[in-house]
Amino acid sequence: DANNLRLNQQYQAADQACQQVLRLEPANVLAKEYMALTERDQRHQIWLNAAKTALLENNDTKAEYELRLILAENNRHHQALALQREIDQRRQREVIAISKLSNSLRQPLELSFNNAPLNAVFDLLSRTAGINFVIDRDVKTDSRVTLFMRNGTVEDALKVLLLDQQLEQKRLNPQALLIYPTQPAKQQQYRELITK
To answer: Can you give the C-alpha Rg of the chain in angstroms?
Structure first.
């Protein structure tokens, strides 16, 4: 009965059933074992909930830490293994996305801009690399840019442009970069932005 309660995650009732048996038979090995398993399962549930919350917050590192705690005690814990697979798949998608974006940014480029609006430079980079730029509303897209480049890449031009204009970038997906000002408030705002 206690084991069935434990398996149905009725931990308090399972613990009470074990304690009742132990009051009658203090040496009952099975009741002691079920009590220990109930305590373990309660711990695992707390860690599993913390891992799920961390995943929702895109904090894979914290989620993996919680899952390791569970799997160290029970390496066949189905829910923990499923969440670990989800993290692994997310990472694999991330690697593929980074690879695709990196290839786009390696497109060869020659450009010549003399006192051109910033948005015109982003437009050329977008068309050359086949990527989209999502520009934060606080970026001054009408600011003027002078940039000459021969035998470079889109990535080279982007690095120079971001440095010159005091901007930062964040990858959104394989075809899009977020561009935002280098300001503490903006960095905080976009720090946790990770697209699945």
So the answer is: 27
